[in-house]
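Treating backbone geometry as a discrete language has practical consequences that deserve illustration. No coordinates are needed to read the tokens, only the vocabulary itself. For completeness, the protein is quoted in full, as a sequence line and a line of structure tokens:
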Amino acid sequence: MPSLRTARLTLYAPRLADLAARLAMDRDPRVMAFIGPVPEDAQVQRAEVRALILSVGKVSGGFFHVEETSAPGFLGWCGLFPLEDSGLIEIGYRFTHAAWGRGIATEAARAVLDHGFRALKLDPIVAVAHPENRASRAVLSKIGLRREGTAFHYGMDLPFYRLPLTEYQSPRAC
């Protein structure tokens, strides 16, 4: 799996060295506020995240851990993955609280979106976000996804965003 670089960030294949930081991020109630409850069983969570890290390169060419190039260290993840049983590919991300408000999610998501369209030849790329998560919804808008109503995913009606390749390639995109 390739790594991606932006002006400030390096996006790389998930690695076990990040396991503790990723587990800590997922146990932070601020990070999980719009995602779901903080995992109760730390051992089960550890086994699940470890298995995901070990399998991600085999499953997708578009799932990355993120760090600042000038100050290495896990900041979160950004990736492309199937949106439930829809047949569509979703862009998603999760970042540590320390990374919030610095444009990191937007910068990483732009790189992953570009990788999805150019290298993986995906069309379209979609996303959903919790209705109350204004920051996540703002990132989706900043990277060019357009809101197209709501859709039922992850057990609730969620704002649904979509970006087709033709719109991404147009001069007005992003």
About this structure: The first helix runs from residue 19 to 26.
